[in-house]
Amino acid sequence: MTLRAEAPAAVRLRRFTRAERWIHRTTAALMGVCVVTAACLYLPQLAELVGRRELVVRIHEWAGIALPVPVLAGLASRAFRADLGRLNRFGPHDKRWLRAALRRDKRPASRPAGKFNAGQKLYAAWIAGATLVMLGTGVLMWFTHLTPLMWRTSATFVHDWLALTVGIVLAGHIGMALADPEARHGLRTGTVSGEWAQREHPLWRP
After folding, report:
1. Residue 65: inside a domain, yes or no?
2. Domain encompassing residue 96
């Protein structure tokens, strides 16, 4: 495992292409619509404030159906496919990163990472799986005439509790992003500073 040579702080490194940034923004927007409309459907105070329950249900359903579309469309991008490959590979350095995170060891040398660290890889895998389960259970709840009552009841139970878990995980994801302005800058503009890349992702080769 070889760490990348130090990059000057003034150097800007290309981290994400325009296509990748739009995939992230569109997916985040659709996920945000799903979370907000779900809150309006399940919290009585918000339900009374917003009203028009039927409209909120339709917006929630269509936003959920559209959620995989940006990722599927993004498969046309070579850079996006390459990043999916990076997210799906777990190496020895990722295990070191996780052990350091569990020990709350924030020293850069203790947390080696490539373009994506182990926490980002676990989040990506979890949210992808959760989205597929939410989509499947949501379809069972939507097309009630196609499935037995027991299936719909089970789907509702899984959908509701998984939705709560997704909300908690998303809150943690947003909190981590708010704590790292340079990472947010990378998603907004596509570039990050060499100093940040050397500190946070020393194994990454742009």
Report:
1. no
2. 75-200
